[in-house]
User: What shape does this take?
Amino acid sequence: MTVSTKIILRGRTVCAGRAEGEALVTRQTIPGWGGVNPVKGVITETQHELRGVSFKDKVLVFRGAKGSSGWSAMYHTARLAGTAPKALLFNEMTTKVALGAVVMRIPSMTDLDQNPLDVIETGDWVTVDADRGIVEVVKKAP
Amino acid sequence: MKLTREEQEMLDGRKGKATQKAMELLVRYAEALGAQRFVDTRNVAGVPGSVNPFLQNYYKDKGAEGFDAIFSHFDLDSDELVDVPQALVPSYHLQGGADPTAWQTIGVKVEVFRNYQEREAFAAAHDVGILKTCTPYLAGNVPARGEHLAWMESSAVIYANSVLGARTNTEGRESTSAAMLTGKIPDWGLHQAEHRYGTHRIDVDVDVESVMDWGMLGYYVGDVVQERIPVVIGRYSQPEIVRLKHFGAAASSSGGVEMYHIVGVTPEAESLDMAFGPKTSVETFRYGKAEQRTVYDRLNANAGDPNVDFVMLGCPHAALEQLREAAQLLDGRKVSANCALWIFTSRVVKSQALQEGIVKTLADAGAVLLTDTCSAFAQALPSGTKVAALDSAKQVHYLPAILGVQAWFGSTRDCINAALTGRWSGERP
Assistant: This one.
């Protein structure tokens, strides 16, 4: 018998809304302008562990934002190009990631009661209910 | 959020539709941050109404290509089209587009350049100061200590906070355009004294003197502290504008540093105690010879071919003394036929250099002096470029990622030598 474990996290809503999708997790901070191709929806920074990886339709789980002030404009462009993530879960609040979440218009949460980087792995199925401040994680099959 | 009567009136639409949309965006943004209130600003630096070919075509396809449309839909993130009024508070346009006198040099198509010109005219007609530089503090916008700003451009933000003691977070395109119409920005983070103290200590245990040394130290610091506030102490000589410019630009590229303290140098760090205030250091990092070499190797990780066909200086935009230094290093010789030398600066500094005769000296040597933008920003290289040489850790961080070229990092002298010979001869420290 397989038991699918479901983990519940609670946290602070950054942008309201509800979305679900496959998790894409990185312990590194995420670059904006100059480190991402928003039209293709991929990270391009040369030394980033997600270089070449697409964030389109993913629930992006990450430490926070770094680099250029063009962060929001890049992810805003990704929204227009249809390559934006479905939701954001992150640890470190900055103006870059706050404004980026706002203009991407996607459910986003921070200050979670367990470190999402420890609990969530790439490939897990994650539901972000930012209206209620709840995240549900279904672990991928081992 | 606590709104003042004036802010509530803006939100209610009593100050016009565009101001209402700007305030709606600022409220969404402030709530995302968890800010309680706004702070007034009379110094905004952003890129209002600017456009790139993707956005131009995107909105054209939607039948919304007018100037007000892009400002409404992109800058203000408004689904509704609004008439854009004049800037309410002093506002400035940062880098962008192409040098108005040499757009063909950097390969900009005529229709794209016309677009840039029309966008610039739009900004100017809305009372936006056209600085066209990533170094507004070298072009006449030098904020006072304690002044609240709403600035974009990570290298300018870190300079304003750390060196000048002004107060700004790293704002984005949408928040600066909204601030331009309202004079408001969320009172959060670096606007508040308690969030300006240091968090991490950096003990410098190797001599840091040259611009290249400061760039490498900045790149190291950004990598280890990410978005926190480093306090640097140890073996360095008094840095001036150019060294601080390169240090900050590097720290805000490898990490997200928006403010730093250098003990005995920056205004909020007369002593180690003053820099940390009531806080204690979360962690101490030692920057010695080994760390410096690791940074140098990381910055040169994308390079291998010693045949350099492109040298770019002026990231962030060159100060007058850097143009003078480049002219002196060229020393009457000519740039190699196998190599191009582009130097980027602001229109203001170029006009100063013109009066000093530096523009002519550089041109006589075969160097190309350009304003408004840079290779990474404009995605512009001389045709056929495979291997670049750069004296900026920030530009090295971005150029290979954006344009897929190899890039060497070294001193300004290493770069000028490469331009003269077409060969890289920089040495590991």
Notes: Chain A has a mean pLDDT of 95. The domain at 6-138 of chain A is CATH 3.50.30.10 (Glucose Oxidase; domain 1). The two ends of chain A are 14 Å apart (CA to CA). Chain A has one domain: 6-138.
